[in-house]
Structure formats: structure tokens, C-alpha cells
């Protein structure tokens, strides 16, 4: 009996090793281990996850497949992950075969505790309804005007006060970073593992539970307050026309839980993403004085034309959206920031039916596909040999006067296809307004003790925020410099005209 049991075990091990040898040779990418697949590599590189994925994609020509769970019958379904940043594949996922690649059950299970059935975490009719409702808000004329008021108020009451204290931290409230980091950890680990940790209340599952209690309490108070405001609102008064109010005014009766998740999804979409992008923008401009100088000259040139050369008029009020619209080079610098440091670095889809990606990769039903937005902006095959350089000029026409938006499947920072970001244009205006206001008033220098690292989260936060030393910017001296340069240009043009005659 003992011999037969030993033989049975030996046969099973031999069969598994033969199967594992075959499966590991049929996929390319990071090393795959027996049983645990590529999970050891993920854990080892968890502090540099996005760079690790990017390195693997570069080595594999833009697409690789790996096995998270190296167990027969699971490896080619739930255990198989296809990772890509090839623009052709990205377009296939986000547009051409959109219906075949929903968020899917794995993503929804991972983020359900935090995002519920909100727009980031839903598919089908639930997603479409929220999308259409939100689209109505983003197409109203009043939104741009309201956004201008909100941004100007934030610049006056918050941004300038923070910077004057000598400490600039553009990352979003700590309230949102813990649950996002815990949710990302869930996404990395096999479902059975994170559910086991949740059941036993281990590790980051504890902080996630605590954070969710605080988030629910805060959002509940917001919703209760808005309900009272809507009930007591006079007929001839100014109606609330924001996203939350739109959902609350619908004929359908939505639970407070659903409204909380709707609100949280849009807060994360519009608040964290912009603040994170600005953190990386200021850091990159500080590292690249040439870029900062060009941004400043553009701001000064616009203000001289709109407000004259009285410096007091420059700083009385933040730039209007009409003035901000003219800041082409600043928009290019922000786009270049998002190319290198996208606010949402990775996204994942579930494969409904067997399919073949444009590059020839077969993806079986039940598996998942991750497209790396972070890696997509760092591929030499897409952006050239200088792909890792911060060069805003790649977003401008040859004469430097027009902004050129790259293909949305190469530059996926705002998503693409039917799920492309509704607030993209307003996000640019918001970020340009804050960036222009800060750079106009202050010169920033990164604090010597700051170690700039990425925080492993669903959103690409700076691990320690952005700490800077702040110095007053001398605007009078700069005006004199601009005037002198203009006079030289005028004299140069006159000289050319005389020679032509």
C-alpha cells in the first residue's frame, strides 16, 4: 500500500512537472515558478511594480503573457494574464472589441468594497447609465464657469497659503491613499489569498476596513446635507446642478450606499488624478530649468498682452480660463508629465470570449488582459530613443505655436474609446490654472532631504509627497528682460525688411 501511494505521488509530481515545463515554455515574460507562477516576482518588485512591468514589456516587444496561478485547469483561464502596451492591442481592447473586454468579475471583486458599483468598477447598463448622466453635466455651459470659480477659490484660499508656508504637497488626502494601496495589493494577490486575509483581518485588510468606515461616514454626511438642501431649495433659487444632485434628482430611488459610491468614484477620478499629476509636473520642471523658463515666458507673454506690464495686475487675480487656454507650452509640459507618470498607471480587462490581439497574441476566455499606461509612454518603438526624456516639444507643431495631441492609444493617460475621460479638457484647464498660479508667484526647489519614490497604489502618488523650499519670484526683473528681448526681435525684423528692399 505504501509503495503504491508513493508511486501515485511520484507519478503526480512527474506529470505536474511535465505540464509545468510545457506551460512555462509556451509563455514569455517574467520567470514562472511551480504553483506560484510569477507571483514571487511581483512580490519581490512590489516597490517598483510599474517599472518592473515596463522592463518586462520592453524586453518582450510590447506584450507578454504570464501565469499568476501555475495550477492545471486554472493556468490558461483565471491564472493567465496578458500584459501589453502595444498601441494596436490597446485600441483593440478599448475600442474595436470593447464589449469583449469589460472590467470583469476579478476587478469588480477586488475593488467592490471601495468603489461598489460606481463608474470605475461597473460594466454594461450600470456603467452606461452613470456615463450618460455624467456626460450631461460635462456638456453644460455652466460647468466651465463653475469650475473657474472653484479653481480660483482653491488657488486663493488654499494653494497660495500652502506654498507660502514653504511646503508644497500636491498629493490628495491621506484618506484615499490607504484603501487604494490595499485594493492594489488585492489585485496583485490571488483572489483566494486576499479573501483569506480579509476573513482573518490581516495586514492591509485591517487598514482598508478602517478607512472604509471613515469614508462612508464622510460621504454619508455629504449626501444627508445635499438632501436637505434640495428639499429646502426655493423654486426661484439657484438649483444645484452638480453630479451628485443629478443622480439624486433622478426618478429612480437610489440607496445612500449607491450614491456614496457614485460620489467617491468621481472624487477619485477628478481630484486624486489631477493632484498627483501636478506633483510630478512640479518635480519634473524643477529638474528641467529650461522647460520651467519656457513655461514662465509663455505666462508672462500672455499676461503682458491681457493685463499690461503692471505687475500688481498680474497677481491680483489668478489667470482666467481664457488666459489659461492660450498657454500651449504649459499644456505640452503637462501632457509630457502624464506620458511619463500617468495618474492611473495600469488597468485590467476580463476576456469574455477567445480572441486574438492584433499582434497575434491569443487570449482565452476567462483570462485577463492588463494594459500598462505607464509602460505605453516609455516604449522606444512608440516614442523614439528619447522616450525617457522630459521633452514637451514632442507635443508641439514645428513652429511651436500649436499643440498636437498624440493618438489616444499611444497616450492612454485619459483612457480611450467609449470609456475615455469625460473631464479631460477641464482637467487640463484645472492643472494649467494651478501650475501657472504657483510658478508665477514662486520659485520652487526640491527639499534636499526628499527622496522621490512612487507609492504603490491604484493612483501614482509620490510616496512622500513633494516637499519644496519656496522663494519669491522677481517679476519686475523678468518684465524688463522680456521687453529687451522684444525690442531686439523688432529691431531684427526691421533690419531684415531693409535688406529685402
What does this protein look like?
This is Cytochrome P450. GO terms for molecular function: heme binding; iron ion binding; monooxygenase activity; oxidoreductase activity, acting on paired donors, with incorporation or reduction of molecular oxygen. With 501 residues, the chain is an alpha+beta fold. The chain folds into two domains: 1-96 and 348-376, no CATH class; 97-342 and 377-500, Cytochrome p450, CATH 1.10.630.10. It is 58% helix and 7% strand. It contains 20 helices and eight strands. The strands form three sheets. The chain has a four-stranded mixed β-sheet with strand order 1-2-6-3. A two-stranded antiparallel ribbon has the order 4-5. A two-stranded antiparallel sheet has the order 7-8. Helix 8 (174-188) packs across helix 10 (204-232) and helix 12 (256-287) packs across helix 19.
In short:
This protein is of the alpha+beta class and 501 residues long.
Sheet with most strands: strand arrangement:
1-2-6-3
Round the Cα radius of gyration to an integer and report it.
26 Å
- Overall CATH architecture of the largest domain: Orthogonal Bundle
Instruction: Report on the biggest sheet.
Output: 4 strands, mixed
Number of strands: 8
Spans where pLDDT lies below 50 across 5 or more residues: 167-172
Question: What percent of residues adopt helix (DSSP H or I)?
Answer: 55-70%
Structural classification: alpha+beta
For the record, give the distance between the C-alpha atoms at the N and C termini, rounded to a whole number: 110 Å
Q: What gross morphology would you assign? A: globular
Amino acid at each position: 500500500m505504501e509503495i503504491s501511494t508513493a508511486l501515485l505521488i511520484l507519478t503526480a509530481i512527474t506529470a505536474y512537472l511535465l505540464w509545468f515545463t510545457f506551460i512555462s515554455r509556451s509563455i514569455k515574460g517574467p520567470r514562472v515558478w511551480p504553483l506560484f507562477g510569477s507571483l514571487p516576482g511581483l512580490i519581490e518588485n512590489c516597490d517598483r511594480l510599474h517599472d518592473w512591468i515596463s522592463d518586462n514589456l520592453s524586453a518582450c516587444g510590447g506584450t507578454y503573457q504570464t501565469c499568476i496561478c501555475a495550477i492545471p485547469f486554472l493556468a490558461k483561464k483565471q491564472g493567465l494574464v496578458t500584459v501589453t502596451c502595444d498601441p494596436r492591442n490597446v485600441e483593440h481592447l478599448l475600442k474595436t472589441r470593447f464589449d469583449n473586454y469589460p472590467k470583469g468579475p476579478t476587478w469588480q471583486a477586488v475593488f467592490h468594497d471601495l468603489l461598489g458599483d460606481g463608474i470605475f468598477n461597473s460594466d454594461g447598463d450600470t456603467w452606461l447609465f452613470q456615463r450618460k448622466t455624467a456626460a450631461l453635466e460635462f456638456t453644460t455651459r455652466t460647468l466651465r464657469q463653475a469650475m473657474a470659480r472653484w479653481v480660483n477659490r482653491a488657488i486663493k484660499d488654499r494653494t497660495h497659503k500652502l506654498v507660502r508656508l514653504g511646503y508644497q504637497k500636491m498629493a490628495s488626502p491621506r484618506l484615499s491613499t490607504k484603501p487604494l494601496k490595499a485594493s492594489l495589493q488585492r489585485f496583485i494577490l490571488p483572489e483566494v489569498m486576499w479573501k483569506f486575509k480579509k476573513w482573518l483581518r490581516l495586514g492591509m485588510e485591517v487598514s482598508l476596513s478602517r478607512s472604509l468606515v471613515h469614508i462612508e461616514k464622510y460621504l454619508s454626511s455629504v449626501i444627508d446635507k445635499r438632501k436637505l438642501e434640495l428639499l429646502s431649495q426655493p423654486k426661484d433659487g439657484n438649483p444645484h446642478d452638480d453630479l451628485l444632485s443629478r443622480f439624486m434628482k433622478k426618478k429612480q430611488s437610489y440607496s445612500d450606499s449607491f450614491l456614496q459610491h457614485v460620489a467617491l468614484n468621481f472624487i477619485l477620478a477628478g481630484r486624486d488624478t489631477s493632484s498627483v499629476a501636478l506633483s510630478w509636473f512640479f518635480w519634473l520642471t524643477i529638474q528641467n530649468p529650461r522647460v520651467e523658463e519656457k513655461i514662465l515666458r509663455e505666462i508672462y507673454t500672455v499676461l503682458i498682452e491681457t493685463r499690461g506690464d503692471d505687475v500688481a495686475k498680474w497677481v491680483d487675480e489668478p489667470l482666467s480660463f481664457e488666459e489659461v487656454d492660450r498657454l500651449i507650452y504649459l499644456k505640452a509640459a503637462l501632457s509630457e508629465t502624464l506620458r511619463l507618470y500617468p495618474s492611473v498607471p495600469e488597468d485590467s480587462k476580463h476576456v469574455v470570449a477567445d480572441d486574438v490581439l492584433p499582434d497575434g497574441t491569443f487570449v482565452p476566455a476567462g483570462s485577463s488582459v492588463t494594459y500598462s499606461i505607464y509602460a505605453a509612454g516609455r516604449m522606444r518603438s512608440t516614442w523614439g530613443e528619447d522616450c525617457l526624456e522630459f521633452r514637451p516639444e514632442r507635443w508641439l507643431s514645428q513652429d511651436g505655436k500649436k499643440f498636437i495631441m498624440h493618438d489616444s492609444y499611444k497616450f492612454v493617460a485619459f483612457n480611450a474609446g467609449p470609456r475615455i475621460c469625460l473631464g479631460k479638457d477641464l482637467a487640463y484647464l484645472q492643472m494649467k490654472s494651478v501650475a501657472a498660479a504657483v510658478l508665477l508667484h514662486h520659485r520652487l526647489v526640491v527639499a534636499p532631504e526628499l527622496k522621490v519614490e512612487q507609492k504603490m497604489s491604484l493612483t501614482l502618488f509620490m510616496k512622500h509627497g513633494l516637499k519644496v523650499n519656496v522663494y519669491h519670484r522677481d517679476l519686475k526683473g523678468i518684465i524688463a528682460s522680456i521687453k529687451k528681448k522684444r525690442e531686439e526681435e523688432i529691431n531684427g525684423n526691421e533690419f531684415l525688411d531693409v535688406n529685402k528692399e
